[in-house]
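Re: [ENG-882] Designed sequences occasionally contain unexpected residues at chain ends

Forwarding the minimal case from QA. Structure tokens:
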């Protein structure tokens, strides 16, 4: 349809192994996949601690964006 407008002349074919899903179910399938990945793979502890430090720094009361603040 609009592919040629962007220089895409490829015909897209659904692989046989990929189940046929109605467009309205895409959000449900995507949400399920995201949920399963979240359940199966834990966030490493060092990433959680870094996020806590950044959240505490963000709540420090300075109105400037984090990237513009000086490192302490």
């Amino acid at each position: 349809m609009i592919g040629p407008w962007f220089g895409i002349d490829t015909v897209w074919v659904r692989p046989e192994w990929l189940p046929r899903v109605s467009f309205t179910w895409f959000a449900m399938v995507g949400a399920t996949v995201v949920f399963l990945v979240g359940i199966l793979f834990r966030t490493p502890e060092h990433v959680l601690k870094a996020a806590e430090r950044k959240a505490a720094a963000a709540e420090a009361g300075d109105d400037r964006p984090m990237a513009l603040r000086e490192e302490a």
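QA comment: On inspection the terminal residues look reasonable. The chain has a mean pLDDT of 87. Proposing we downgrade this to a documentation issue.
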